[in-house]
Amino acid sequence: MKKIAILLVGFIFFSSCKDEKKAETKELTNQELNKTENENFVLTVEKIDSTQFPASIKYEGFVKNAVRWKDKLGDNIVITTETGYHINKKFEHESEDSSDAELFAYHFIVSGNEVKQTWKVYDFIADCPVDIVASFVKNTFQVTDLNNNGIAETWLMYKTTCHGDVSPCDMKIIMYENNQKYAVRGESRVQVGVLDNGEKQFIGGEYKLDENFKKGPKVFKEFAQKLWKDNFIENWDN
């Protein structure tokens, strides 16, 4: 009887280990499948114009960028717009010479005939009697998948200010991955003079990363810092 009992216990233990190994193998297989799926994902971003927008999409301003792509979230559309100089009656104006300028960015998910707005970026300068800047920095709008998870990141860089002299603009980088917002905030760098030895003198250029960039994937932080470094010097043509 003792031998039978020992054999029975051994059989149960062996069967249990075998089941655990099967479960572990299945879990690893699922992980490998997910990894393979992400590796096979190719982000293809298509430029579109307002004639290709679904009829239910609403936006303000003049379109600067409009793109469409598909990823794990579905069928995505992002639109960036600017108003330029105008008068918006929702703002109070202390002078007849004052103007306003606004900028927007919208993200939509298209599913059949339904369109859902998932995030929106809005910034502005209001009641400005001198020079207004509220615009996206040229050639900085990008859609990426830096962490290769099959969900695209949208990168926006823009500047805002109201000034009548040569001085830095407020400058921001805003990035969204799904509904998660990342931000870099600072100011542009402006040349204010030249020393006798020919050395150029600048002011501005400082920036701060928000906590999401500090704690998020390293590749996001590095991309944001490079984007800033490549575009923070003021170019009055932008």
Strand content: 35-45%
Uncertain segments of ≥5 residues (pLDDT<50)? 4-14
The main β sheet shows up as:
6 strands, antiparallel
How many structural domains can be distinguished in the coordinates?
2
Give the termini separation.
Answer: 90 Å
What is the N-to-C order of secondary-structure elements (H for helix, E for strand)? HEEEEEEEEEEEEEHH
The helicity comes to 10-25%
Number of helices: 3
Query: What is the averaged pLDDT score?
Result: 88
- Computed structural class: alpha+beta
Specify the overall morphology: globular
What is the number of beta strands? Answer: 13
Q: Round the Cα radius of gyration to an integer and report it.
A: 26 Å
Give me the secondary-structure topology.
Elements: H1 2-40, E1 46-47, E2 62-71, E3 74-82, E4 99-111, E5 114-128, E6 131-136, E7 142-144, E8 153-163, E9 170-177, E10 180-187, E11 189-194, E12 200-204, E13 207-209, H2 211-215, H3 218-231
Antiparallel strand pairs: 1-2, 2-3, 3-4, 4-5, 6-8, 7-8, 8-9, 9-10, 10-13, 11-12
Describe it for me?
The protein is of the alpha+beta class and 238 residues long. It has 2 domains: 1-40; 41-231, no CATH class. Helix content is 24%, strand content 42%. The protein is built from 3 helices and 13 strands. It has helices at 2-40, 211-215, 218-231; strands at residues 46-47, 62-71, 74-82, 99-111, 114-128, 131-136, 142-144, 153-163, 170-177, 180-187, 189-194, 200-204, 207-209. The strands form 3 sheets. Strands 6, 7, 8, 9, 10 and 13 form a 6-stranded antiparallel β-sheet that branches. Strand 9 (170-177) and strand 10 (180-187) form a beta hairpin. The longest helix has 39 residues, at 2-40.
